Amino acid sequence: MTSRELRTWSAAIINFHDFAESVENWSSGTPCPGWTIADLVSHTIDLESMLAADPRPEHSPDWTALPHIESDFGRLTEIGVDYRRGCSRDELLAELTSAHARAVARIESLPPDASIPWLRGETPLPRLLGMRTFDIWVHEQDARVAAGVIGNLDGPGAAEAMQYLTAGLPKVWGKGVGAPANAVLHVVITEPGLTGDFWVRMGEDGKAALISPSETVGDADVTVTIPWLSFVMLAGGRATKTDYARDVVVVGNGDLGTRFLDSMAVTP
What we know:
Layout: H1 3-22, H2 37-51, H3 72-83, H4 89-108, E1 115-118, E2 121-124, H5 125-147, H6 158-167, H7 169-176, E3 184-190, E4 196-202, E5 208-211, E6 222-227, H8 228-235, E7 249-252, H9 254-262
Parallel strand pairs: 3-6
Antiparallel strand pairs: 1-2, 3-4, 4-5, 6-7
Helix pairs in contact: 1-4, 1-5, 2-3, 2-4, 2-5, 5-6
């Protein structure tokens, strides 16, 4: 763990806090099913509190009133959100600041190479802070989409989002699409925000992998050109292909391209 990781994580929290504070209507629905902007703030508080090793809320939501929850992981992350429903925006903003401060104090007290229990098991601190920075930045984007104020597309967390979401492309091409052996996918991510150029090939063994452009022969079977925010929303499971169809250009095998857009989500 480095001071850079700590600074980036804290910068992401500050950006999220300041944007949320600037939004009048916290009851606006967001790209996260069932969650408002207030719920995004509550979720961020909940995970920062977990990182601070605070006790989990003793709370049992009325699951019948929460039809958007469809998995055990969803139930885990919903408890802290539902527990805070009804809190004022001032209370939530203050708790966000204090929870993050406690989390920072705990992390700074640990050895840089420590691993601690997290949502999916023991996780090294550098990786965990990268995950937190990614999650916070994406939720800021969720809030911005809900409020209609797009921005900070290359802010703290964007690089982590690019790394995490594009790492899932081979799984999407291989398992989600079921592309035939040697089929090549080319994903071009365009501005505003970060840009990128990624190639994926399906192997003879049924496993897809990222490859370099020099490893390709001829044109890709499918080329998808997509703006950065649209990529984040689709790969983050925030939207269907219909929501961002106007922003995506697919060239090549139409069936494989459609199946790719239908299968893009790589987050829980």
